[in-house]
Amino acid sequence: MILFTTLLLAHLIGDFMLQPNRWVVHKEVNKITSSYLYLHTLIHFGLVMLLLWDLNLWRWAVLIAVSHYLIDLGKLYANPYFKNKAIPFFIDQLFHIAVLYSCAYYSNFMEHTLSLIKEIDWALVTAVVFVGFPSSIVMAKLLGGMSDKIELDHKSLPNAGKYIGIIERLFVLTFIILGRWEAIGLLITAKSVFRFNDLKESNSRKLTEYILIGTLLSFGLAIITGLLYMWTR
To answer: TM spans, by residue (predicted)?
Structure first.
């Protein structure tokens, strides 16, 4: 675990702290001919060697650096095919972490991976998944008849309400698991403060009622999910 953590730390420093945005832009424009691509690769090699502090592990540093170069290069050429640029970013990071994991546990890769799978709390995974997009769909069905009667005179970010709801339900679920019920009250208060200005400007009773019902429904789904998870433990 210490080896994997060390390699992950080297990756985080190299990819996010020692890579200026102008390097990223230069790589996206020039791709394989970008000098910053090779400098970025050398930085990762140096960081791995520095944090491992063992010259006998230079082969692992070379393997990680070369794989990092190939993964980054693949991402540079795949980027234009994705409308949502977050997708290639996360795929890129997933491949990097997979390489680090393979290097850290190469001697017992299958055994360690199987042990991790056996330790997964599937009830928790189910709870987390449910308070995400499934809950958003459930709420959309329940509030569908009401939303048609609401007139909005201001613009909003696309799907902002859906993602805010998902995040708040994840927070509520986390607080229930940790036994911090008072934090749920603070979360409701914070949301009410942010919503107050919108409700004040709109001066619409329908909008106020719609937001209140949606908020209570969102929190209610998260609370019920959290209680069911705690009951199954």
So the answer is: 34-53, 60-78, 90-110, 122-143, 163-189, 210-231
